[in-house]
Fold:
Amino acid sequence: MTGKKRYRKMLPAAVCIVGIIALVLLWENRLPEKSRKEPADHSGDAMAKEEQWETAETTPLGKYPETVEYSLGKISGANNSNLPVGDTYEDNAYTRYLRNVLNIQNENGFALEAGGSYEEALEAAISDRDIPDVMVVNGRDNLARLVESGMIADLTEVYEQCTTDTIKEMYSSYGDFLLDSATFEGRLYAFPNVEIDDGALMLWLRDDWIEKLDLEKPETMEEAMDVIKAFVENDVAGNGETVGLACSTGLIAGSNETYGVDTIFTKYGSAPENWILNDSGEVVYGSLTQETKEALGYLNELYESGVIDSRFLLRKTENIDELVTEGKCGAIFGRWWAPNNPLNASYDEDKTADWKPYFLTAEEENQIKTFASFDDWMYVVVRKGYEHPEIVGKYVSAIFDYSRYEDDQYAREVNEYFSINVDPTARPMNINVDYRDALYRSGENIRKALTNEISITQLSGLERSYYDTCRSFVEGNLTTANGWAAYTSRVTAVDTLVKGGIKEEELLFMGDVDAEIPQELQDLEQQTFLQIIVGEKPLDYFDTFVVEWYENGGQKLTDSVRKAYAETLK
Structure:
């Protein structure tokens, strides 16, 4: 048969199927009634599945019987958010945990770094009325636009039904203003990000330099500045390269920046770049007060005496980083997390660099109330019409409550991300939810576990991760900069704040008003402050600056802010 093909004539498929069905029906009709197989009753399974769906849709941690997918607009981070090799924004510790616990999976509509690219994508999505199922929104103005346009879902019932009691306690720890910022006409339209209390700025000094020069450890601002002056005069770094207190040209670090001198302003009861209440209960811009003028006078004295780095006007942040890393600078102001950045690079370069935090309590007692700004606040919203708006409440409950106390493969993987410095932007939704005093709660628990005051079984997964790292560092089994940074930030720094008598700042809410300072006035302020500090302008020039500020739009802005605050009091 080689070289030949055998063909078999095929009947059309439809003819075959019809014939088979006919034969089956004929045969079944010939069978006795009792021999016929009754169709399987799956109604019980269907009811069980329906109950699963209902439970999932109305509870914080009920698992969906089938995978629920959602498109997502999110802010990404630099360097792929420091995710381990192989992990992506759609497949990482967070998404694997969420699949395991809730059976939800994100598909990114757009994942772009914060700034121009993300803002452009957000603006385009809103303008085209084509937003992802779930989206991170920057600023209350954008949130208000989405509410007014009817594009996002009402999440009031989602919050009530699908968040745990712990999550509700976390939001409540900020008072009413946080959820109020996402509420319109009595209805909640977004889950807001929280900003935990990071405590006051502390002065970080090279303690090994203090000991080398046989100096007394400082307890007041004046004593601390004398220590820094001694660093410079004795050229403790050598080769004439020792610089004084690191200082950025921005002057004010706020909650996120580095190398500010905010604490020196606080010493005088000043709060530049913030709207505050004066002694008369009137809203004023903190950069314009007489207390700010006094602080600028003191900064000028520090500059003239060599305490402040004499070349600070010429340095960018990366230049100061190099000075710290190379051991040429031994004094910076920073928050509790300064050991993670920038001091870890200093320790990595020189293990004898013994940076210690000093909380100058007397100066911090002059801290005054400032208004919270929602200009850069983040919110998570859900597209109106999306079938499962409840996934936002479930996500928050699983990631910020349940995972912290679970002890399985997926939860451990989530908590390990903290110890390997994966950026929070790796999470599907770029918000954080925690208690306002979360820093002090976790710091105390870690310290007590290290001193055997409590069992490690009482620690959350996150705390256990830090505890393991800190214990390894203390016992000498971990000598890396990350180990030093974990212990110095989470134990040494937090303990310093607690012993110094931490004072939780009371936040104020000024209502719906654009209180952002125009760039022209920001530039005027920065230029004036720097000129006074380095002596290019006399201190009394500050009074001229205040007049110019009000005349160039500042008075109109102040009036609108005062009016908005008055409305909130009603």
